[in-house]
Model the fold of this input.
Amino acid sequence: MSSSSSSLIVALVSKSYHIYKKPVDRLKQLLLSPLYEVCLKRRVKQYFTEFHALSDVSFKAARGETIGIIGANGAGKSTLLQIISGTLSPTSGTVEVNGRVAALLELGSSFDPEFTGIENVYLYGAILGLDRREMTKRLDKICKYADIGEYFHQPVKMYSSGMVMRLAFAVIVHVDADILIIDEALTVGDAFFVQKCMRFLRDFRKNGTVLFVSHDAAAVVSLCSHVIWLQDGRIKMQGSPKLVSEAYLEMQVMKSQNISEEQMNRQPSLGDRTSESQKQQEQARDMRLDFINRSNLRNDIELFQFQPDSLSFGQRMASIVNVSMTDEAGCVLRWVVGGEKVKLCIGCEAHEILKNPIVGFYVKDRLGQYLFGDNTFLTYEDKALEIAAGESFYARFSFRMPLLPVGEYSISPAIAVGTQDEHLTQHWLHDALVFKSHASSVVNSLVGIPMTSIEIIVQ
Ligand SMILES: Nc1ncnc2c1ncn2[C@@H]1O[C@H](COP(=O)(O)OP(=O)(O)OP(=O)(O)O)[C@@H](O)[C@H]1O
Done:
């Protein structure tokens, strides 16, 4: 990307803070340090420790790009975005912005609670570099977009959080921003207004640049074209939303289970099982035969071979050794038609005694968006289940295959031990079974559900 096509260039941005143990240390630093330096011509000890909230962060964003910024609490997301929006200066590094930046962080946090909605519109406009005359021209439209009625004339302290969001977003929509910075607060709240914001964002993204900040990997996958993962003030990883969010999710699982990266076995050696799965593939029945010539929009879904060597993590008291989709009679399928009854079988092997194993899966689309998933926990919650070391077992999920838009999908199975809320992942296999929808009547939604009937009734 050339710098001229970039609407935003962040180059080696760092931010550090001086941390003082006691308030008096700040005073000592302020008074003694320069005094010593002048009188004694030497540096004296520092009364603070330096904390690096951001270290050498660099990236570029082009017009039409939506960049996701993910990271745990304290990772440096707000610091970075405050620097980009110009409300905080970096300790070192530069930010080049081509155009107007409008930030909607912690929605409405820059509103003055004592001022009315209208007064805050002017205030917010001023922060974004628009004078009173320009804001007056836009006031009616902002009022209509926010749709908060008489509250527009009331002090903001009387607003519900939903009203604050409505007003803040209405302003953002009408300030002709080139770069929008928003956070996940936008995606919660009144569903109709969220949809309205999303429609604006979808449109805005065609020419503008969006920075979307979130803790939630699934949210960035559905909105962003590129994702930056911040950890301890540094870029831990950046790239495609799917890859980065998977790695981030993996790290979160490891953290919640107190597992170090070394403890994770990331090298499955299940190659010897490939031949078995190949055999299954050859014997698989083509379910399309039953549906031939019914419709050219029939949702033909091709299932590929189980990938035992796909990226995985887990403690490995057990392994996933096979994933297949079968028809009701148990015959392994190579093709399935959306809307048909199928069974998803996840074969496992225990390497040690397993108490209360949970087997589950997620189905994801090409962008890594989670479409649906389930696990065995609730069904087995009241039944003590113990599996001896060396035993094989499998979990089977029976459901109707949803109708899927044309594209590639994958199933990520997992086995864990414990409960739904507190468990230790033993083996999580990313994209273990890939499948492809070749034709579909579903175009504008993530999945379609099989209709039992469709009618027009003229009275
Ligand atoms: N004024 C400050 N003085 C000292 N440390 C600060 C200051 N502002 C932020 N920090 C620290 O910098 C780090 C990054 O903070 P930041 O708010 O950017 O994180 P974040 O990723 O936005 O977190 P969250 O998701 O919780 O909002 C944190 O450890 C925070 O405590």
Remarks:
- The two ends are 60 Å apart (CA to CA).
